[in-house]
Amino acid sequence: MKVVMLESAEHDLKELRSYILKTFSVETWHNTYSQIKKSIRNLGQFAQLGNIPIEIESLNLAQYRQIISGMNRIIYEIRHETLYIHIIVDSRRDMQSLLTRRLLRIA
Question: If you ran DSSP here, which 8-state letter would residue 46 be given?
Fold first, then answer.
């Protein structure tokens, strides 16, 4: 399956990098980034591996799924033979407010 990293996910990755470098260490960032890349590679082969995020479940949008990679959530969409990475975020963040901000930014 083709994997496409959307601009929003690229932005998330940059924010995550800044946070980890400031709060932890370069080594922690390298380990985290390596884990994220590995998880995304696995998605290319096993796209149905993830589950539907609780925040999206009630909206009946089964094409959106998530996997956990270390302390991070990777939210993606399966459309035909392409997998779109939408969000990469620390799993401790409030996903509901993140989704709301994203929707307001788009509108």
Answer: -
Tens of pLDDT along the chain (107 residues)?
899 999 999 999 999 999 999 999 999 999 999 999 999 999 989 988 899 888 777 777 888 899 999 999 999 999 999 999 999 998 887 777 777 777 666 54
Contact between residue 43 and residue 77 where contact means Cβ atoms under 8 Å apart = no
Using alpha carbons, list the distances in angstroms from residue 87 to 16, 37, 71, 82: 11, 14, 14, 16
State whether residue 5 is helix, strand or coil: strand
* Number of C-beta neighbours around residue 66 at 10 A: 21
The phi and psi torsions of 94 (rounded to 5 degrees) equal -75, 105
Whole-prediction pTM: 0.86
